[in-house]
């Protein structure tokens, strides 16, 4: 019983709260891979970057609300993204999602959203 309970709670314990913004294509120049063709990608802030060790990590991201007053910002969906870049200061979010990834979870016009993200 305890093992099952621990397996259910493990992903919850790893979830983090943060802010996400987006950037426009092309997504071809990245700190991790240079030229790459994936579109469900993310750049991360220094605290997640860990001197490049974040390259290739994957996160499941869900919008939980607008950072600023924007009713209906979230779509209710999640998106899985791969870390391909570093978001240099001033980075307005913990996660700098590709526009393609951002629009899966939020209205583009919201611009800056609050998210829950979990390593996958």
Keywords:
six-stranded mixed barrel, alpha/beta, Expansin/allergen_DPBB_dom, 34% strand, 120 residues, 3 helices
Description:
The chain is α/β, with parallel strands linked by helices and 120 residues long. Helices cover 20% and strands 34% of the residues. The chain is built from 3 helices and 6 strands. It has helices at residues 2-14, 46-49, 99-105; strands at residues 16-23, 41-44, 58-66, 78-86, 95-98, 113-119. A 6-stranded mixed beta barrel has the order 1-5-2-4-3-6. The radius of gyration is 15 Å and the shape is globular. 31% of the residues are buried. The model is unreliable at 4-11 (pLDDT under 50).
Q: What is the 3D shape? A: globular
Helix share, percent: 10-25%
Low-confidence stretches: 4-11
Work out the radius of gyration: 15 Å
The overall strand count is 6
Distance between the termini: 24 Å
Mean pLDDT over the full residue set: 88
* Structure class: alpha/beta
Roughly what fraction of the amino acids lie in strands? 25-35%
Strand order of the largest sheet: 1-5-2-4-3-6
How many helices does DSSP assign?
A: 3
Largest sheet: 6 strands, mixed, barrel
GO cellular component, one term: apoplast
Organism: Arabidopsis arenosa (Sand rock-cress)
Signal peptide: 1-18
Protein name: Expansin-like EG45 domain-containing protein
Write the layout of secondary structure elements.
Elements: H1 2-14, E1 16-23, E2 41-44, H2 46-49, E3 58-66, E4 78-86, E5 95-98, H3 99-105, E6 113-119
Parallel strand pairs: 1-5, 2-4
Antiparallel strand pairs: 1-6, 2-5, 3-4, 3-6
């Amino acid at each position: 019983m305890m093992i099952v309970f621990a397996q259910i709670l493990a992903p919850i314990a790893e979830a983090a709260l943060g802010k996400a913004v987006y950037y426009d294509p092309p997504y071809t120049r990245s700190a991790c891979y240079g030229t790459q063709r994936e579109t469900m990608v993310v750049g991360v802030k220094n605290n997640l970057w860990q001197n490049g060790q974040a390259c290739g990590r994957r996160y499941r991201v869900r919008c939980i609300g607008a950072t600023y007053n924007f009713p209906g910002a979230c779509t209710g969906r999640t998106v899985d993204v791969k870390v391909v870049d570093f978001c240099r200061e001033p980075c307005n979010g913990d996660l700098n999602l590709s526009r393609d990834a951002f629009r899966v979870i939020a209205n583009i016009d919201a611009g800056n959203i609050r998210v829950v993200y979990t390593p996958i």
